[in-house]
C-alpha cells in the first residue's frame, strides 16, 4: 500500500525534479525558491477544485489532471503572464495507483506543453479536493488588470463561450444532442484550453482582461466594477460552435452568456487597436470576436449610473435579460 511519501515521490516528485529548470530550488525542500526574470513581477493565483462542486465524481482522472492545471494557467493568461511553476496540494479518499497514474499524466502533459514546473505541494487523506497555486511573470506595465478598461474600448471575447456549460447540461440530462456534438461539448467542459498564447500576444494591445470561469455576464461585470465603467453588449455577438448552435436558441444564449468553465478571455482594447487584436488572435491561433463597447457611467441614466451591462440584440434593440454568473455558494 502506498504511503504519503511514496505516493508523492512516485507520481509527482520524480518527474518534477527531472524537469526543474526555472526554479532556483524546486520540489523536495521546505520551500521552493523562484524568481521572475529581470524587470518582471510575479503573478500568483490559486484555484481549488472540489469534487461535486467543480467536477463530477466519475470524471476521467486524466482529464481532471489537465483541467486542474488549465484553470490556473488561464488566470495567468488573463493577466498576460508567462507560466513559471505551480504547487499542488490535494486530499484523496484512498491512494489508488491507477487513478494517480492517470491524474498525474494529464497534469504533467499540460505542464510540459507550457513549460510550467511543479515546485512543491502537499497531500493528505480526505474527500477529493485539489488546490493549485501557480506562479508566472509579467512586466508590470503590460499586466492586463481588471481596473484598466476605459470608455470607448471595444469588448472582445475569445473562442466560442458556452460550450462547457452545454456539456454540463448534457451530463445532467438538461438537454440532448447527437453523439458527435456531445463529445465536443463534453471535451470543452473537461479539457479547457488555457489561452496563454493570446494573453501574451495582447500585452501592450489590450487594456483590461479576465478569464471566463463563472460566465461571461458575471465575469465582465468584475471588469466594469473595478474600472468604474458600464458596457453595451450585443447578446447575439458571441460566436457559437457548430455543436452549441444545434441546441435550442434559449439554451444557446443562456450557455454563451451565463455559462461557466469556458476559460476563454474577455478583454477590452481601444478601437484603434482592432487590427492589433486580430493579429494577436491569429498569432495565438484562436478566434477573437468584438461583442460590445465600454461606456462611461451616466448618473442621469438609471441603467448606466452604476457599473452594469446593457444588453442589445443583433439589430440594436434593447433586451431585458436577467443573467447571473456562477456562484460557488448558490450554484444549482
TrEMBL record:
UniProt binding sites for Mg(2+) 3: 30, 75, 211
PurM-like C-terminal domain mapped to chain residues: 150-296
Binding site for Mg(2+) 1: 46-47, 122
Residue sites binding substrate per the record: 54, 261, 326
Residue ranges constituting the PurM-like N-terminal domain according to the UniProt record: 28-137
Binding site for ATP: 121-122, 146, 213
Keywords: ATP-binding, Kinase, Magnesium, Metal-binding, Nucleotide-binding, Thiamine biosynthesis, Transferase
EC code(s) of this entry: 2.7.4.16
Positions contributing to Mg(2+) 5 binding: 214
Pathway: Cofactor biosynthesis; thiamine diphosphate biosynthesis; thiamine diphosphate from thiamine phosphate: step 1/1
Pfam families assigned to the protein according to its UniProt record, in alphabetical order: AIRS (PF00586), AIRS_C (PF02769)
GO annotation terms (biological process): thiamine biosynthetic process; thiamine diphosphate biosynthetic process
Ligand binding (Mg(2+) 2): 47, 75
InterPro entries: PurM-like_C_dom, PurM-like_C_sf, PurM-like_N, PurM-like_N_sf, ThiL-like
Catalytic activity: thiamine phosphate + ATP = thiamine diphosphate + ADP
Record: residues binding Mg(2+) 4: 30, 45, 75
Molecular function, one GO term: magnesium ion binding
Note: Reaction mechanism of ThiL seems to utilize a direct, inline transfer of the gamma-phosphate of ATP to TMP rather than a phosphorylated enzyme intermediate.
Family, per entry: Belongs to the thiamine-monophosphate kinase family.
PANTHER family named in the record: THIAMINE-MONOPHOSPHATE KINASE (PTHR30270)
HAMAP family, per the entry: TMP_kinase (MF_02128)
Name of protein: Thiamine-monophosphate kinase
Annotated gene: thiL
Amino acid at each position: 500500500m502506498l504511503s504519503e511519501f511514496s505516493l508523492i515521490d512516485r507520481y509527482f516528485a520524480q518527474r518534477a525534479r527531472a524537469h526543474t529548470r526555472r526554479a532556483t530550488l524546486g520540489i523536495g525542500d521546505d520551500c521552493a525558491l523562484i524568481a521572475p526574470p529581470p524587470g518582471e513581477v510575479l503573478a500568483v493565483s490559486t484555484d481549488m477544485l472540489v469534487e461535486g462542486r467543480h467536477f463530477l465524481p466519475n470524471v476521467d482522472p486524466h482529464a481532471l489532471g489537465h483541467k486542474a492545471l488549465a484553470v490556473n494557467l488561464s488566470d495567468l493568461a488573463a493577466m498576460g503572464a508567462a507560466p513559471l511553476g505551480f504547487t499542488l496540494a490535494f486530499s484523496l479518499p484512498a491512494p489508488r495507483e491507477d487513478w494517480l497514474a492517470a491524474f498525474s499524466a494529464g497534469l504533467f502533459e499540460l505542464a510540459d506543453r507550457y513549460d510550467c514546473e511543479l515546485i512543491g505541494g502537499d497531500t493528505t487523506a480526505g474527500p477529493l479536493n485539489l488546490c493549485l497555486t501557480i506562479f508566472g511573470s509579467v512586466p508590470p506595465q503590460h499586466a492586463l488588470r481588471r481596473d484598466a478598461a476605459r470608455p470607448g474600448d471595444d469588448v472582445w471575447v475569445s473562442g466560442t463561450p458556452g460550450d462547457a456549460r452545454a456539456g454540463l447540461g448534457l451530463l445532467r440530462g438538461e438537454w440532448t444532442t447527437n453523439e458527435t456534438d456531445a463529445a465536443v461539448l463534453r471535451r470543452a467542459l473537461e479539457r479547457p484550453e488555457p489561452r496563454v498564447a493570446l494573453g501574451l500576444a495582447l500585452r501592450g494591445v489590450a487594456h483590461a482582461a479576465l478569464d471566463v470561469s463563472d460566465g461571461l455576464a458575471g465575469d465582465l461585470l468584475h471588469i466594469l466594477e473595478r474600472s468604474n465603467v458600464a458596457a453595451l453588449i450585443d447578446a447575439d455577438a458571441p460566436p457559437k460552435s457548430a455543436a452549441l448552435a444545434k441546441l435550442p436558441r434559449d439554451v444557446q444564449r443562456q450557455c454563451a452568456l451565463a455559462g461557466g468553465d469556458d476559460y476563454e478571455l474577455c478583454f477590452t482594447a481601444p478601437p484603434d487597436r482592432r487590427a492589433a487584436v486580430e493579429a494577436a488572435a491569429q498569432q495565438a491561433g484562436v478566434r477573437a470576436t468584438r461583442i460590445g463597447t465600454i461606456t462611461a457611467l451616466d448618473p442621469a441614466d438609471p441603467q448606466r449610473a452604476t457599473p452594469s451591462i446593457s444588453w442589445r440584440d443583433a439589430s440594436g434593440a434593447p433586451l431585458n435579460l436577467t443573467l447571473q454568473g456562477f456562484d460557488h455558494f448558490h450554484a444549482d
